[in-house]
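Lesson 9: reading folded outputs for more than one chain in a single document. The general rule is that every protein is listed as its sequence immediately followed by its structure tokens, and records are never interleaved. Here is the first one.
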Amino acid sequence: METDKNGKSLIPNGILVIVGGHENKGEEPEKKVQEAHRSREILAAFVQLTGKKEPVIEVVTSGSSEGAESFKDYEKAFAALGVKQIGHIHHDKRADALGSALNGRIMKADAVYFSGGDQLKLTSVYGGTELLLKLKERYINDKLVLGGTSAGAMAFSTPMIYAGNQDVQQLAGEVRVTTGLEFLKDVCIDTHFVDRGRFVRMAQVIASNPTCVGIGIEEDTAIIVRKGRDAEVTGSGVIIIIEGFNITDSNILNFGSGESIQIKNLNVSLLAKGSKYQIPLHNPPHI
């Protein structure tokens, strides 16, 4: 077992459920073609992974500008899955997230779920806070289940994309990244990946960070990550893995030139429900 210099395990005991957005919460599917495929499968798996008959779940909606409305949707969805103890955490300002007021709730939670919205808001509000530290400690040491969807999922990774839409993603250097909440390191998560055509922007991130792995997740699809590395796909769609370990050439350094991005020798895999993937470790643990 890998341990740090103090003998503590470097392998997380917790589980990540990383969702590509628009996970079915029991609503009517928008299109009939989806009806046969969409279910509450992802949220049901999230609840079941706690291993508790009566789990305590906290829903964090701080990334959303409509936190109360977002929470109502999840409260209804989790209640329909038999969950009786559902808490709501929402902060619009970093000052309100400082301190230890929520430590007791974080320690009692069996699972914490981050809704969508703005991933940069999540990192700017929670980065370096005691709340985030407690979540990380419990993720490492306990069997805490952490879920995130859309922006909430993107914030789990480092590097984290925060800008670079379809209008500019093909231009070298026009995708913006920062440090995420770091539940996964050397992994970049992007969501709504197929629906919003985000392959090129992920490829740019990997060209500028070839040690990293890009994981693009389709809507109503998720990866479940155990032990910090062992991933399995669930849900109705696909995930796309982009690896840049063998990149031989790119023009990523020509940022600001207006050139279209060029990258040679990316490795791409498409995975669907039941597929497994082990996240590579190309950096030694920082001890």
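And here is the second record, again sequence then tokens.
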Amino acid sequence: MSNPVTNRHEFVLFFDVTNGNPNGDPDAGNMPRLDPETNCGLVSDVALKRKVRDFVHLFHDEPGKQIFIQQRRPLNPLIAEGAKAVDLEDFRTKSGWDKTKSKGRPWADIAKIQQWMCAQYYDIRTFGAVMSTGPNAGQIRGPVQFSFAKSVEPVLPLEQTITRIADVDNEEGEMGRKHIIPYGLYRAHGYVSAPLASHATKGTGFSEDDLELLWQALANMFDHDRSAARGEMATRKLVIFRHQSALGNAPAQDLFDRVKAWRVHQGATQAPGSPATDNWPPARQWADYSVTIDRDNLPAGVEIIER
């Protein structure tokens, strides 16, 4: 495995959905998530992390790149496995720790388990994890975090009626509902903290190889997440800001402001900086937008990478 990441990064991810539900809201009958004040669509950071995990698990289920959080798989046995691997399987439980077994060094022992878990599981190295649910291995802060994704413009969820002709227990087919968004372009922000990756600062060991796998997952994660509910989803653009230092060379918000998505109206792109007067006709494809990156007077020590 390569060395831990030593440069701070931020990134802007654009992805879109056509005739699908990118992230259902369980509090609203699984309708697409919305900001009720703006009617802009939302996709949770948890949903995006799930897609990264699924991509890595699908193509890289190997030692050092296994996935800790998987559907219908209990976590406590995996934590216990980590404790056993460093000969500390009984030193601490959810209810408390045994001084005779911890040998007076409970936090040092927790660190041993955490190091083993980070080395074994890609998603712990990347996103961190809460591992205090069984044998108490504490919590790990991950160097990679996502924001909620938000649609560039308001979206209009539609409720479509569907029918089922297959009989169940000699019952006739039933009517159902399917929630979709005709089209939406979403934007998410992400952050990579070098200190939280570095072993020198008790980081997870998130490496340059891990970072490259993250970029690969973000670019391709929707290609292997097809379903009837999702419609057509695709990553459209990934803009990465790479800092020369671990601390960073410019505020993240200033760099994000350099990336803008503009509507294309009647074959002409809006002039950068001009307000949008309307969104008519409604956007229905990626070609209805133009993404611009302001490279003028870029802060020293910051590199822009497009993928």
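What the second record shows: The CA atoms of residues 61 and 118 lie 15 Å apart.
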